[in-house]
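Q: How would the structure tokens look for this protein?
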Amino acid sequence: MRIVQSGEFDSYWKSCAAHKDDDAVETAVKEIIAAVRTEGDAAVRKFASQFDKSSPHQLEVPFSEAQRALEQLRANEPSLTEALELAAQHIQRFAEKQREQFAHFEFEMEPGLVTGQRVIPVERAAIYIPGGRFPLFSSVLMCMIPALCAGVEEVILSSPPTQDGLPDKKILAATAIAYKVTHNNNVRIFAMGGAQAIAALALGTESVPRVDVIAGPGNKFVAAAKRLLFGEVGIDFIAGPTDVLIIADGQTAGGGIEKAADLAAADMLGQAEHDPDARARALVPNKELAEKIAVAIERRIKTLSTEKTARASLEAGGLIIVYKTPEEAIRIANVIAPEHLELQIADADNWIPRLKNYGSLFIGSLSAEVLGDYSAGINHTLPTSTSARFTGGLSVRHFLKTVTTLRCASGEGFEKARNAAEILARAEGLEGHAQSAAVRKKE
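A: Here is the predicted structure in token form.
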């Protein structure tokens, strides 16, 4: 964990910005994609036998397995089931509210010239959920529910097979909950993992239907497959290591500076424990608060079962920056463009208009990022690696197409637009275009 003055930030950030392409990963993923393109299901099974815990002959899983998994979870872990159902309800309500913001319209530009837009869901979307040591069953809700609320006709859940040939049981249970809360009949499940799953979904195989959009998290092989196949299929975005930036002033928590430092430390560790590449950072106005956060981190980290991972993350990239003015802090925050931005400051509303780059904003000391991760209703699938400069997090919009319409009739507005199109086309040397406009001139 480093503590630096704001004047040192730019040089530090420049040293962190170097990006190293993993040529070995890209080469391996290109080979997987090529094999799936030519061999279909056989290639998926071949790579599953190499990389996954099993290689099921039947890739599609009956939806009854998800319903059975939910029944088992309800019997064995009722509190977890209730927490998942509450989270699903919140995510569904928020996604429905988002969907309301996307509407059809027609607008008469001028007499005879009516422009418009239609908002159309994609026909088929896939949600990829990794397995691994920590199966991300909460991501099932975060990714599937927006797709279902967008009105996608068929949503496919793909996740690696475990030893029994089925995806993780909690992933299956979460799929059943997403289905239940959205009342959608068109959910299918496939036991496929890794780059081969992304390729199968993007290209289609004998048993796997080709989808229009793929969303969801994954390792570097999954990310590389999504990047290489983008264009043949739509994607949400390329996810990198997770990160948080906390702007704290030591004044917002009821217990004073000690409590404020402890809250910041807890939230930084909550991010650092993801993996050694995760990045936890804070912006504070004085060195006293910076040092108290560092002390609180050291006290708390010893209590974590994930101490080894969290410590590796903090040693590699943990950072506390001491800023001189709010303007300086805002500039640094916009440069970092964090996935998660927490405002643990007394006058947060005065800062918000000037903060431009973040995946999700958490306002006030009670608004812990972990609530966004799980249960508050906002989405936890967010832009990383400074991509918050140009995109927001996963939402219903990733499963919608905004298409435009034009409706013309005789009138002054139409004639003016027609004449302008003819002039512009001829000026660009496209005589066919010009004649297409000219032939519609009113006699």
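The domain at 241-389 is CATH 3.40.50.1980 (Rossmann fold).

The mean pLDDT is 95.

Upvote if useful.
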